[in-house]
């Protein structure tokens, strides 16, 4: 199966405008073929109106084919085995590791307000599970998709987690360009984290959002954010074979530069998973920070 896709990739130079007719014909044929796959149909058609919805990510998190026919299973297998398909699962595992450290280490026993931005299915919290009952704090999950918020609440409650620790709010993250809006509607936090979402926001808006997040971070608090590194994956699968092209192509150096523009002088720690295509960036707000 992978050899077939490699052959297709080398057949057409997708970067050349003169190949536009060939590209359109190729895509049409591929779409008819790929619709045998439950996962790829979602990637192609965006049934919830946007790319990377929580249900699509849930299929990728599973790590095995979900279609009920043999051809669909092979197409699923290709999608989940690609660099970012694996990277999405590794990103979740790394996030769990980071959150458990922040939530439960001996140095982090005080009450903490936590903000999960673009929560989707909150899979990382679901998998931490009943251990969250030991958390001395409150978790606010925000997303613009009410279905995702409902899914998070239902699945988390199924894990026998104390739901009094949670607050679910529908919110467009782009409104977080305004620090006062965030303070009035959400408050201040000790840990703010988001995975994947920031890849879909252009630099100008994202710089304002990070300024707002940092302004509403308590002293000693941390922002945990993931970014893809386009030097370590091919966008062929997502921009051409699929219809998942909404994320910006940033390098690790560009992500660091963006954060430095947002929060001048900030100390940025980079935490890697086993897949170099996705990195975590951790920013701590020190006491009496001037910024």
Strand-helix topology:
Layout: H1 2-11, H2 20-34, H3 38-45, H4 54-62, H5 70-81, H6 83-104, E1 112-117, H7 123-128, E2 137-143, H8 146-157, E3 166-170, H9 179-185, E4 189-194, H10 203-215, E5 217-228, H11 236-241, H12 252-262, E6 268-272, E7 278-284
Parallel strand pairs: 1-2, 1-4, 2-3, 4-5
Antiparallel strand pairs: 5-7, 6-7
What descriptive keywords fit this protein?
seven-stranded mixed sheet; alpha/beta; 7 strands; globular; disordered N terminus; 16% strand; 45% helix; 291 residues
Summary of the model, kept short:
With 291 residues, the protein is of the alpha/beta class. Helix content is 45%, strand content 16%. It is built from twelve helices and seven strands.
Low-pLDDT runs: 1-9
Strand fraction band?
15-25%
Gross geometry: globular
What is the CA-CA span between the terminal residues? 52 Å
Structural class: alpha/beta
Q: What's the quaternary structure here? A: single chain
* Helical content class: 40-55%
Sheet with most strands: strand arrangement: 3-2-1-4-5-7-6
What count of helical segments does DSSP give?
Answer: 12
